[in-house]
Amino acid sequence: MKHGKRRTFVQRIVSGGQTGVDRGALDAAIELGIEHGGWCPRGRIAEDGRISAKYRLRETDSPDYPARTELNVLHSDGTLILFWHRVVGGTELTRRLAAKCGKPCLLVKLGKKADPASVRQWIKENEIRVLNVAGPRESSCPGIRQAACDFVRALMADPQQSSDPPNGAAPGGR
User: Fold this and answer.
1) What pTM, to 2 d.p., does this model score?
2) How far apart are CA 22 and CA 12, in angstroms?
3) What is the pLDDT of residue 127?
4) Could you give the C-alpha distances from 11 to 7, 76, 159, in angstroms and in order?
5) Is the pLDDT of residue 135 over 70?
6) Where are the alpha helices (DSSP H) in the chain?
7) What is the domain extent for residue 82?
């Protein structure tokens, strides 16, 4: 480790506050007492109206979604994209921006094979303290908010495991 300090687990979860994966990740952070935040569009707009003040998000100067997407990528150490079917639209933009900015990005297809231990290993290897969590909105993937919340809860459930290898598991994603 750099400067002889032991690496700590994720200290902050950020997202854009949209319905779906964004809110599922923020809900898990709030439930677990993990610092959370991120950027949202001016006016706190989302597909279901105004984003609740319970989410500690900063507004961008623009009401456009891509502006907040880019700021969340830039102001995090890495991006975790959670999805079910395909990575398209704003989720694909997030992936492209992470690549353009040289930021670590991991795609995890939620379901039976989604492995929190391999994601913990990816977080450890990439020294991620501020984790951007992104993915589809609820209207395009009904039920993904709860699935994302459950996955982030499982991911953060035992941060001590972040310093141990996950029994040979390798980071997944496509």
Assistant:
1) 0.86
2) 14
3) 96
4) 11, 11, 10
5) yes
6) 21-32, 65-74, 89-100, 116-125, 144-156
7) 8-163
> Which residue reads 């989720």 in tokens?
91
Question: Domain containing 55 — which CATH number?
Answer: 3.40.50.450
Cα–Cα nearest to 91, from 21, 1, 29: 21
Which two tokens mark 36?
């959370």
49 backbone φψ class: left, alpha, beta (φ>0; ψ -120 to 50) = left
Pairing of strands 130-134, 78-83: parallel
- Answer for the pair 78, 132: CB distance below 8 angstroms, yes or no: yes
Q: Is 141 a member of any domain?
A: yes
Confirm if 143 and 151 have CB atoms less than 8 A apart. Answer: no
* Residues 58, 37 contacting (CB under 8 angstroms): yes
Confidence of residue 9 (pLDDT cuts 50, 70, 90): confident
